[in-house]
Every structure is written in C-alpha cells, then in structure tokens.
C-alpha cells in the first residue's frame, strides 16, 4: 500500500510540474472551418495537423456543428492539414508557418469536393474492425461479425475476446469471475440464470458495441472484480422519421425466432426514439450427472446416474421508448422508459438410477419437474446535460428507478421404484416463489477541461435498493397437503451505497495519463422472517472503501507504431441480491439451490501491462489478487447436493494474452485472440482445506472474406482447454461457426449463419472436494443451429446530432439475477 501511495503522489506532482514537460508545448494557434462545396458547415469532420518535418501528427480535432476547428499550443514549425470526412481523406498542401511573427493564424475555409461527401440514399460504407484498443478498454464492433446476425447478446459475448460463458450462464473475463454487465452504461443488476435469460432476450441486431474494461475508470462503480462489460445499443443519428426491422429464424432441433424493430424521429429540437423485440424460447438440454459414493477407506459404496431431459419453451418482449429535448445547443433534457416481459417454462423428465458397487440396479426414481415463470422489469430514466462552453465544462445528471418482479410456479413429482419395477413412493412438492426488487439511483458527473491537455472530472452517486423474497412450499402425500416449513420463508434486504470520485487526464507529447480515486460507503441489512419452525434472524453491515485507478499510455514513436499501456485498479464484488436470500429451492429431489446471507464482499487488485504494435497487435501480461471471491460451492449431505455461493479466501490469476487483427488484402481480414492463464485458489472448505492450481488456454480466430457483388463470408471459431476453478474442473471444448451475407439493396441485407457446425461446443466437467463422492457431468444443448436474418430500413437518412447516452444507475442492476 505504501508503494501505491508513493506512486500516486509522484504522478500528482508530475501533472503540475511547471514548465518542465510543458516546455515542449508552444503558444501557436490555428483555427478555421470545414465546409462543403455549397458552403454548408460540416459537422464531425476529422482535422489533423501534420508536421512537415517528419509527417508526424501534432494535433487532431473534430469539427462542431458550425464546422469550426481550433488548434492551440502549437510549437514553432511548418505544418500541413489533412481533413477526413465519411472515410475520405483530403490533403491541403498550403504551407503553414508558426513563428514569432505568426503565432495566431486564421485559415480560409477548407472546402471538400462534392464527390467526397455525396451520399447515395443511406449507402454509407465504412469497414469496421472487429476489435479496437483504447487506453482503458477494448471495443468490439458487433456488426463486424456476420455470424452475430440473428443471435442474442449472450451469443455475442461468447465470441468477444477474453469473454467466456459457462453452462450456468456465468460470465468470466480473462479467466476471472465477477464480471458486471452494463447496458448503455447502466448495470443490469442481474446474475446467474436471470442474467442469462435477460441477455438471451436482447437481440444482437439492437447492439452496437461491446466495451470490455478489465480495469474500469473511476467514474464507474467499483463493483466487478473481473471488470465491466458494457453493452452499447444502437442509437440512430438521422433526422426525419426512419424505421429498422430485423427478422430472424433459427433452426436446431426446434425452431425459434428473434425479431426486433427500432424507430427514430428527429425534428428541430425534439428527438423521439424506441425499439421493441419479440423472441420465443424453444430449446432443450440433455444433462447427464454421474456420482460415485465411497466408503471411509476410499472403496466404492454405490453409484448414482442421473439423466435429465430438459425442454425449454416460452416467449418474451422487450421495449424502450425515449425522448430528447434540445433546449439549446448546449442543454439537453431526456427521458427513457424501458420494459421487459419474459414467460419461460421448463419441463424436465428426470431419471435417476441407483446401483451397488457392481452396478447392479437397486432402485429408480422418475421425476417430472415443471417450472412456469413470469419475469417483469420496468425502468425510468430522467437525464439532463449542459455544456457551459463548447469544449466544456459540462454537467450530466441521471435519475433512475428500476423494478424487477419474478413469480415462479414449481412442481416436482417424484416416483421411486424398486429394481423389479414396484412403486415404493409417490411424492409431490409444489412451490410458489415471489421476488420484488426496487432500485432508486441519483447521479451527477461534472467534467472540466483545465487546458487543452488537462481535464478534471468528478461526480457523486447515491443508490438505494429494497428487495422482498417469499417462498411457499407444500408437500402432497396420499392426497394430504403439508406445509414444508424447511423451505417456506420470507427474506427482506435493504442496501444504501453513497459514492464520489475524482478523475484526472493529462496528455503530454508521448505520454497520456489517467488517474482516479473513488470512495464508496455501503450500509446494508437483511431480515429473515422465519416461520413456526424457524426463528427470525437478521444482520447488518457497514463499510467504507477507497478504489484508486491508474492508466498510462506511452507512444514509443510519433507515428504510434509502438505503444505501451499500463493500468492498475482496485475493485469490489458485492453479493448478488438473490445470493443473499437464504431460501432452499429444489432443482430436483437430489439437488437443491441454497442462498447464503453471510456472504462477504470480495476485494481485488489488478495490474496489466500491454504492448500495442501499429494498433493491430496487442500483447498483455496481467495479474490479479482477490480476497473472499464469491463462487458456487457444492456440499453433499446424506446423498443430497446443496449448491450455494461461498467465499473463496484467496484467488490469484496470472495471464498472458495476444490480440491481433490484420487486413492483408482488400478482400481478406483476420482477427486472432489467444490467452494462457494460471489460477491458484486456496480456502477453508466443507471437506477441509481447498487448494487448487491449474493452467488453461483459450484460442479464438476469425476470417472475413469480401467478395464481388456485395457478398461477404466469415468463418470464426474457438478452442478452450480444461479449466480448474476452485471446486470445479471444466472440460475442454471447441466450436466452429460460419456466416454469409448479401447486401440486397442500400436498405436491405440478408444473412445466413451456422453455429457450432461440428457440434463440439459441449459443456462437461468434474466436481472435486466432495465428501466421499466423485462427480462428473455432461450437458448437451442446442449449440448447433442455423440462423436466417433479414434486415431492412425505411425513412430519411440525413446526418444529425447524436442523442445523449444515459449513464445512470450503473452498479445495482448487475446484482439482480434474471
């Protein structure tokens, strides 16, 4: 900690060293305007100031609505200007001289030729890289991958560099658990199967980018030991009225659809936008679990083989409706309403075979389990943004209200037969589960440029969360209903988090520095009401923590062919709201899910060092140290599996990764990602000391072929080695996907993709550290499927200003399981 304090102090001093590093900064100023051939100012043109001496880029600017640009702090010397607009680059050979006689220069208007900017309908073609690297994040462009068409947000995440999704829908980043998922800078507050269901209900056609932040800046909530994945949805930037439609038909063992519509209307000071989607769930999973029970001396006692045929059906709707009012060029007011409805159903035929040491059948249990659910989510966001000046300062305020409500109707019918087929017992367990979560959040962010190269930002946030969970279970034996007090209960939880942050950005000639400090105070309390068989219980916690962040980007040469990137951050993982719920919920007669109200928050420190070559190849070495990481744990009591979240005392992850993208020809592009990680976990456990070490690797590749007549073909795939993580060993797997697209017209396109062509992306693994038990599993699902997607758009296509992206309640939504 002393080292960190000294480092931070040194960097603060570095920001304000008078005339030391700033001696290289001159006092010259160059300004002007970019217009088209008709004299109209061009908004969003890129203007680059290039040194005549070595052709290095001295400054970059983006024109505003009035087409103006302004360069300040220019050294003495000769310069040229380059302008880029809509992907076209046009040089201006006028020689510009900055000397003692020409410190301030006002250039004549730079006129771009008509042929450079004319649009044919909406036919703007600009090739995007699949992956882009920035100082504090990796950006994935969703539409750059054809096989993403017609899929869901969860499918897109699985194909993103360093992101893995396991058989339970849990998401990890570069081998680390504890990823927080954001949608448009707003947390989902969800985890586990609930988060999986939510992401599966979000069509990929609504997504624009995936931002992967292993060490997020201080303006983001400190939650997420592995980092933050921010899913940015598409927001149209065109005036008039326009509609986009995406229709998708999927086929595997069953047929499913995932369709969406978005619209936008801009007129003068008003902008109204929205989207709506419908999807139906129509899938399956065949889960096999093998368990071997042993005696105290290690010899085999008995065997238990379980096969579950899971049929997944249901449907869901999602929608967003928003409006912006541009009071002036500097002031914007906005409102966004969001909603999600899901009605998933699961029917499970479960066959459990018990046999002795020689696999001679002893008994068979046949279970018919059913779950019918209703999931509702509604949200309201009010936002305000004001720019005091064109280049800042600016103020952004967000007020959020988010509500989740879940109803589950469960039925578990178990019939046990002897080895000769005689019915021994017939049990029926019914359950009604209700969950209500309400989240209130207020946030303000202020950014103040102190100079052209120095920017200060700060903000405050307060959030309040209230949850209420009810479980009513009853057993029916011989037509007599009994209340099951072991599983029936009610749990209430409240949490208040107050936070503030400061963030400082400084750019030198070759070095960019971003450093921040965030303060968070948490007060929480939980109350389990109990019943006539169980007493009340409650807990209360209060803690305050500091979370520093540091980002360094050093350019090794003026052309930025080589760059070094370093980042450090301290993070926290607070337990998911549902994980704190102490209820016992059955998956079947032999497997139960149990919450843990005694879960502790976990803290981590993470360091990364990267080398970026020509912005195409990124090599990274990273190390993280996590205390009390929350992980799924399995305990066996009297032959029954109890799955509950628990704290793992110490988890260390060391990894190296390589991310590369190449465009060797105009018709071929290649993207590659590889990772090697070493994971060491150590903790006290049900069976004594748990200590595991494992090395795992991950490979991911993508080929894109651009063919004549607007045809495109893409082939991508991945390979994952075995992964040892605490109590689990996940089996190796691989998958190959392919896609083809055809641009039918400037407004319509057709895409066909096939995922997991060889049906090899199958989850399997082993569960260790069980009391006198060995266990393994294999889950065969609907990973192989074909998708046909038709996309088209109607309406006007004139470019206009973009709406303000809301960034309100950012942390709490990610702690709700959807």
Question: In a nutshell, what does this entry contain?
Answer:
Helices cover 4% and strands 65% of the residues. The protein contains four helices and 45 strands.
Notes on the protein architecture:
One of its GO terms (cellular component) is cell outer membrane. Residues 136-227 form the TonB-dependent receptor plug domain. Residues 386-791 form the Outer membrane protein beta-barrel domain. The protein has 818 residues and is mainly β. It has 2 domains: 27-117, Sandwich (Immunoglobulin-like); 240-815, TonB-dependent receptor, beta-barrel domain (Maltoporin, Chain A, Beta Barrel). The chain is built from 4 helices and 45 strands. It has a 22-stranded antiparallel barrel. It has a 6-stranded mixed β-sheet with strand order 9-10-15-16-13-14, with no helix packed on it. Strands 1, 4, 7 and 8 form a 4-stranded mixed β-sheet that branches. It is globular, with a radius of gyration of 29 Å. It starts with a helix and ends in a 23-residue tail after the last strand. The model is unreliable at 1-25, 115-127 and 797-807 (pLDDT under 50).
Layout of secondary structure:
Blueprint lengths: L1 H14 L12 E8 L10 E6 L5 E6 L5 E7 L2 E9 L2 E11 L5 E3 L3 E2 L2 H4 L13 E3 L4 E4 L11 H6 L4 E3 L5 E3 L5 E5 L2 E2 L4 H9 L6 E7 L13 E7 L6 E12 L3 E13 L2 E25 L5 E27 L4 E26 L4 E27 L6 E25 L4 E27 L4 E24 L2 E4 L5 E19 L3 E18 L8 E19 L6 E12 L10 E5 L2 E4 L7 E12 L3 E21 L2 E26 L2 E18 L2 E20 L3 E10 L2 E3 L2 E3 L2 E13 L2 E8 L7 E8 L2 E9 L3 E11 L23
Parallel strand pairs: 1-7, 1-8, 13-16, 32-35
Antiparallel strand pairs: 1-4, 2-3, 2-5, 5-6, 9-10, 10-15, 11-12, 13-14, 15-16, 17-18, 17-45, 18-19, 19-20, 19-44, 20-21, 21-22, 22-23, 23-24, 24-25, 25-26, 25-27, 27-28, 28-29, 29-30, 30-33, 31-32, 33-34, 34-35, 35-36, 36-37, 37-38, 38-41, 39-40, 40-43, 41-42, 42-45, 43-44
């Amino acid at each position: 900690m002393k080292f960190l304090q000294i480092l931070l102090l040194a960097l603060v001093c570095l920001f304000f060293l008078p005339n030391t590093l700033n001696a290289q900064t001159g006092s010259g100023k160059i300004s002007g305007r970019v217009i088209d051939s008709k004299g109209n100012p061009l908004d969003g043109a890129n203007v680059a100031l290039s040194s005549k001496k070595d052709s290095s880029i001295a400054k970059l600017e983006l024109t505003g609505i009035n087409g103006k640009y302004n360069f300040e702090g220019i050294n003495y010397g000769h310069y040229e200007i380059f302008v880029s607009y809509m992907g076209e680059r046009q040089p201006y050979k006028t020689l510009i001289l900055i000397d003692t006689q020409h410190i301030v220069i006002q250039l004549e208007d730079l006129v771009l030729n008509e042929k450079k900017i004319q649009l044919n309908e909406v036919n703007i073609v600009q090739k995007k890289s699949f992956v882009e690297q920035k100082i504090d994040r990796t950006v994935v462009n969703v539409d750059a991958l054809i096989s993403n068409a017609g899929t869901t947000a969860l499918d897109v995440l699985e194909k993103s560099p360093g992101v893995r999704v396991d058989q339970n829908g849990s998401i990890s980043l570069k081998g680390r658990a504890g990823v927080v998922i954001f949608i448009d800078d707003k947390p989902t507050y969800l985890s586990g199967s609930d988060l999986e269901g939510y992401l599966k209900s979000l069509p990929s056609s609504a997504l624009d980018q995936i931002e992967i932040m292993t060490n997020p800046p201080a303006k983001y909530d400190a939650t997420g030991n592995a980092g933050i994945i921010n899913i940015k949805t598409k927001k149209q930037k065109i005036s008039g009225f326009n509609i986009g439609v995406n229709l998708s038909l999927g086929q595997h063992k069953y047929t499913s659809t995932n369709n969406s519509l978005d619209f936008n209307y801009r007129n003068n000071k008003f902008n109204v936008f929205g989207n709506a989607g419908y999807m139906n769930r129509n899938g399956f999973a065949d889960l096999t679990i093998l368990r071997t029970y042993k005696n105290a001396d290690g010899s085999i006692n008995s065997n238990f083989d379980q096969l579950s045929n899971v049929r997944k059906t249901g449907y869901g709707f999602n929608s967003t409706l928003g409006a912006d009012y541009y009071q002036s060029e500097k002031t914007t007011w906005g409102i966004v309403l969001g909603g999600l409805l899901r009605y998933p159903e699961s029917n499970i035929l479960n066959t459990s075979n018990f046999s002795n040491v020689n696999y001679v059948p002893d008994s068979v249990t046949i279970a018919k389990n059913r779950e019918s659910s209703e999931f509702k989510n509604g949200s309201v966001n009010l936002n305000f943004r004001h720019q005091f000046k064109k280049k800042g300062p600016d103020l952004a305020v967000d007020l959020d209200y988010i509500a989740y409500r879940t109803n589950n109707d469960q039925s578990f019918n178990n019939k046990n037969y002897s080895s000769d087929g005689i019915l021994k017992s017939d049990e029926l367990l019914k359950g009604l589960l209700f969950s209500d979560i309400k989240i209130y959040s207020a946030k303000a962010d202020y950014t103040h440029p102190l100079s052209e190269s120095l920017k200060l930002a700060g903000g405050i946030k307060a959030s309040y969360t209230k949850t209420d969970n009810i479980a009513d279970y009853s057993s029916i034996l011989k037509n007599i209903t009994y209340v099951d007090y072991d599983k029936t209960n009610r749990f209430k939880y409240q949490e208040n988090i107050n936070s503030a942050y400061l963030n400082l950005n400084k750019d030198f000639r070759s070095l960019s520095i971003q450093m921040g400090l965030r303060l968070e105070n948490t007060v929480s309390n939980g109350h389990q009401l109990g019943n006539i068989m169980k007493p009340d219980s409650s807990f209360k916690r209060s803690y305050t923590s500091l979370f520093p962040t540091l980002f360094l980007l050093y350019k090794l040469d003026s052309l930025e062919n080589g760059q070094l990137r370093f980042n450090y951050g301290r993070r926290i993982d607070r337990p998911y709201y549902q994980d704190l719920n102490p209820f016992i919920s059955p998956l079947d007669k032999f497997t139960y899910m149990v919450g843990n109200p005694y879960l502790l928050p976990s803290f981590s420190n993470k360091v990364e060092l990267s080398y970026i070559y020509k912005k195409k190849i990124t090599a990274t070495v990273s190390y993280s140290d996590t205390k009390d990481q929350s992980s799924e744990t399995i305990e066996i009591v009297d032959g029954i599996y109890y799955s509950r979240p628990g704290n793992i005392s110490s988890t260390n992850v060391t990894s190296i990764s390589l991310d590369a993208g190449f465009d060797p020809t105009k018709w071929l592009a290649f993207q590659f990602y590889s990772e090697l990680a070493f994971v060491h976990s150590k903790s006290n456990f049900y069976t004594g000391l748990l200590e595991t070490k494992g090395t795992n690797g991950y490979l991911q590749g993508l080929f894109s072929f651009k063919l004549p007549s607007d045809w495109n073909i893409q082939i991508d795939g991945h390979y994952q080695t075995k992964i040892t993580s605490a109590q689990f060993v996940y089996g190796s797997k691989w998958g190959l996907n392919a896609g083809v697209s055809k641009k039918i017209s400037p407004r319509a396109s057709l895409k066909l993709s096939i995922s997991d062509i060889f049906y090899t992306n199958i989850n399997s693994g082993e569960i260790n550290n069980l009391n006198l038990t060995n266990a393994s599993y294999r889950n065969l699902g609907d990973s192989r499927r074909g998708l046909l997607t038709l996309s088209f758009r109607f309406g006007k296509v004139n470019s206009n200003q973009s709406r303000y992206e809301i960034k309100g309640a950012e942390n709490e939504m990610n702690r709700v399981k959807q």
